[in-house]
Structure formats: C-alpha cells, structure tokens
Design brief:
Elements lengths: L1 H14 L7 H7 L3 H6 L9 H22 L5 H12 L1 H10 L10 H5 L6 H19 L1 H11 L7 H4 L4 H11 L5 E9 L6 E8 L2 E8 L2 H20 L1
Antiparallel strand pairs: 1-2, 2-3
C-alpha cells in the first residue's frame, strides 16, 4: 500500500509540476488517523499536526494574494473573502478538482463508510498537504501550488454557494449590536478515527444554538448556521 501511494504521489506531483524531497512527510500528510490505528503506528504519525500548520500557511498565502489583487478593498471585505476561500467546503472543491482525495490513506472501516469523500476529511488532507509542501519546499512552492489550484477559482461561481456561517453570524450580530459571540466545545465522542464533536455558540453569555460535526470547526459552523437562521427568522 505504501509503495502504491508513493508511486501515485510522484505522478501527482509531476502533474502539478511540483518538486519534492521528503516523501515520508507527504505520506504523513495523507495518513488519516484510521490508517494509523489499523497498522498500529505511532499515534502522531497521522496528518493532524501537518493540518494545523497547513491551515496557517493557507491563510497567509491567500491573505497575500487578496492583499495584492484587491488594493481598494478594506480589511473587512478581505477577511470575508479569505474566510470563504479557506473554509472547509471550498477546500473540498479545490482538492477534488485535482483528485487529491484519491491519495488519502484510510483504515478499512473508514474506507467502507465513505471517508474518502467526507468533506472534513478531504479538507484536512488538503491542509496537511500544504503544510508538508511548506516544510519540504517552502512558501514559493506553496504559492505555485495555489496559483494552479486556488487563485484561478477565487471568483468562480462554485464558490459563491459556499457559506462561512461563523463570519455571517458574526457580521449580523455586529450590525444588530447584539453583543459578543464565543464558541465552546461541549462534547466529544466516538473512536479516534470517527470522532463527533458538539459545540455551542454563546451570545452575551447565553448559549443559543448547538452544532455537531466530524471536526471542532465543522461543529462550530453548524452551531453558527443554526444561530444565524434562528435570529433572522425572529426578526421577520
């Protein structure tokens, strides 16, 4: 399986016109926790640490792109655009355009339950790959990758349907002078390779909605969506 991955990965990098040195780093980027568990590997050999790094690198890369491309836009607009570009649904679109999800290494159970197409899992792998590319080749290669897979689609119709509810809810609350918004993780359950997170959104010290998701970020998005729609319906 590992040899097959390395062959497919090398072909993908050639397709993307990208160089690489540390193949083990990229293998980790595509190793889901279920794969690590199935083969009794070190629990830190999955892609979550690289996902953490890749998330920050993506934000920096997209921020620089928007800063240069839209010199007339104020900070608020740039922040909203960046949130739309780097949110989970958008990353899934970018990943699937280049079939990056085909490279993900999954445990047998996760594979059978459709993990390869699960949005949170695909977006995590995309971020982890960016983190690995940054460590292996530096920011110039990340920029080159983004020029092929992200920047051309910033104004694409596909992204217009992508909604970052945390940003929308925050802006709505600010316009209505309703107070401060925070999020709190209230539950985490299930095995390591199939976690379910529950978060609540708190407005001025009062919990007003809950959301569930495969990641903490997804659960917060769901909570924000419920809160946003609930408040808007009350106004009508």
């Amino acid at each position: 399986m590992v040899q097959a991955f390395q062959t497919r990965f090398a072909e993908k990098m050639q397709e993307l016109d990208l160089n690489f040195n540390q193949i083990d780093l990229y293998q980790q980027a595509f190793s889901h926790s279920s794969f690590i568990n199935d083969f009794n590997m070190n629990r830190l050999d999955h892609n979550e640490r690289l996902e953490f790094l890749g998330d920050a690198v993506l934000e920096l890369t997209v921020s620089r792109y928007l800063f240069d491309k839209y010199p007339e836009l104020p900070e608020g607009n740039l922040t909203k655009m960046r949130a739309t570009i780097v949110c989970e649904p958008s990353l899934v679109i970018f990943a699937k355009k280049i079939h990056l999800n085909d490279l993900i290494l999954l445990g047998k159970g996760e594979e059978k339950t459709g993990g390869r197409t699960r949005p949170s899992l695909v977006s995590d792998a995309f971020e982890a790959f960016v983190g690995a590319l940054y460590l292996d080749q530096g920011l110039p290669s990340v920029w080159k990758f983004a020029e092929k897979t992200i920047f051309p689609f910033v104004e694409d119709d596909e992204l217009e349907g992508v909604v970052d509810f945390k940003t929308q809810f925050q802006e709505y609350v600010h316009r209505q002078n309703k107070g401060d918004v925070t999020y709190r993780l209230i539950n985490e359950e299930g095995p390591a390779h199939h976690r379910l997170f529950t978060s609540e959104v708190i407005l001025e010290g009062t919990a007003i909605a809950e959301g569930k998701g495969k990641t903490k970020k997804e659960s917060e998005q769901k909570a924000a969506e419920r809160a946003y729609k609930s408040l808007k319906n009350k106004v009508k």
